[in-house]
User: What shape does this take?
Amino acid sequence: MKNRVTCIFLILVVLSFVVVSCAPKPPPKDKIRIGRAVSLTGPNALIAKSASIPVYDLWVDEVNAKGGIYVKEYKKRLPIELIVYDDESSHEKMRFHLQKLMVEDKVDFVFAPCGTTFLFAAAPVANRQNYILFGAEGGALQISEYAEALPYFFAVLNFADTQMPAMADLYKENGIQSVAIIYIDDLHGREYTSVATAELEKRGIAVKMARSVSMGVQDLSPLLKEAQALDVDAFIAFTYPGAGSILAPKQAIELGINFKAFHANVSANFGWFNAMFGEAAEGVMGSGAWNCKSSPGAKEFCDKFIGRYGEPAVDWWGHLFYWGSLQFFEQAVEKAGTLNQEKIRDVMAKETFETALGPTWFERGRLAPASHPGEIGQWQKGVFEVVAPKEKATAKFMYPKPAWPEPKPEEKK
Assistant: This one.
């Protein structure tokens, strides 16, 4: 009986060895191919080229400098090859190129396009092919619904539902009692205005004016004068650089209209805003936010990015989010030990990794709010300081902001 058991055991050992030996080996692999359909031309290109593109390029170069990402399945590091198609700022072309990358080119992974509406269009396309897609530029509350319904989509950026409560708390704590809002008449502008209005009024802060503007707005002086006549404490522009966020402070300076707080939602977060406005940028607020003091990883990223592109090229809202998400993705691949989308997706949904953002994880498809480096920033002495929430602040909120400097003669009308 004992000899029979021993024989059976030996047979099982031999059979298990044969099964392992005959198991299919992964096909030869010498690189990881990542595809992206993104706006290199057209109206969306300005944002793409100043936001995620330089960060992604820097990350690819850094990963390749160390030989690539280590993938246990292949027992070696695999360098990255980045394949990029120009979507020409067209949703239709973006979807076409994204589908081509996955189905025809058979890339290993895809990166997101640029912009909220482009993310909305891309996420279902990637999900149908079971391809991981983590967001870059863009964010809206509906993306939360997408992230829960589409298991391969991960939203990275913070937006209205975390930024506006932090801004409203900041206003309340500093005695701001009334605001005027202008907003671009699209998903971004309407959503930010809706959330901000609710959060401000919840804290007893009056929204005395809320006016929509078109993408091609050329003159905001009537709205600036209306806000001045209403004697509001704060002026908020939920607009884009080409649709109010530059024009509003520019014309306020020309007209000598000073508000105690001035928030340029998408514009003040860029380094070029400070370079453009100089002394006049002092005290202007924007969304985001992070800076080189936010974490040791943020300081390391600053040194790399500014050393390569210069300080005016920094996006003090999104760049650290994009960088941290790429570091998270790299660690998820290494943890999974494979290039299998489903296995990596499961790791991304469950694990916490240390990145430049600090401890980084996702909750129901969105970057956890605790992983955000900040929500609201303000220019102070040439630095975009995090001023909200308190626990992430790198400087105290400056209120009231300094009056605009006198415009130069050539700037006056």
The mean pLDDT is 91. The radius of gyration is 25 Å. The first helix runs from residue 2 to 22.
